[in-house]
Design goal:
- By secondary structure, the chain is mainly α.
- The chain has a domain of about 100 residues.
- The chain is about 55% helix and about 5% strand.
- It has a two-stranded antiparallel sheet with strand order 1-2.
- β1 and β2 form a beta hairpin.
- α1 crosses α2.
- The N and C termini lie far apart (about 175 Å).
């Protein structure tokens, strides 16, 4: 072997060792930077940022987050099931509402039919009812009716004993109108004196 080749091999091996050491140093520096970045992300105010503390805090945070994720998944499943049940209940209520509306419509038709048989005029269209061609006056104040006026058909016929016999005329107690009693004969109707 040539001493030149031998030296070349040694230089090559030495260069490879230097390159490997350089790559290893770069890798360590990159790892240290990543640990510092992770430590700052976990707690920026923490003073002790050694690798063991950073790894322990990261593991604890991951456990807490995993537990929270599991809790949220269980809550989501519970809410999804409740939502499904509420959707079913809503659909049932809609169906029941439609059935009730149909029953109300059916009963309304039956009621209209019975009214038509009992009171045929009750189902008349109000637009078909004839109104007087002139305006009907509407009183602006209540109409006063004499207290002695009794609706027709309910008037009691005066008896002879109810009529005073001492004089032939008397006065109405409520309005002071002179009434002539001389024209009353027996049970006959009371007539006005003209």
């Amino acid at each position: 072997m040539d001493p030149f080749d031998n030296r070349f091999e040694k230089d090559l091996v030495a260069a490879r060792k230097v390159q490997k050491a350089g790559r290893e140093k770069l890798r360590r520096e990159k790892l240290n930077e990543q640990f510092l970045e992770l430590g700052n992300a976990l707690d920026p105010e923490q003073h002790k940022n050694d690798k063991v503390t950073i790894l322990r805090d990261t593991i604890q945070m991951l456990k807490d987050l995993t537990a929270k994720i599991n809790t949220l998944k269980a809550e989501y499943n519970s809410l999804s099931e409740e939502s499904h049940e509420l959707t079913q209940e809503k659909n049932e209520l809609r169906e029941e509402k439609a059935n009730l509306k149909s029953a109300v419509d059916h009963l309304s038709v039956q009621c209209q039919q019975r009214l038509a048989v009992v009171h045929p005029w009750a189902i008349c269209d109000s637009s078909l009812i004839l109104h007087p061609p002139y305006p009907v006056p509407i009183p602006s104040a209540p109409i006063l009716i004499h207290s002695d006026v009794v609706p027709s058909g309910t008037r009691k016929r005066p008896q002879l004993k109810d009529i005073p016999s001492s004089s032939s005329s008397s006065r109405c107690s409520s309005c002071s109108v002179a009434v002539d009693n001389s024209s009353v004969v027996g049970d006959g109707p009371v007539s006005e004196n003209k």
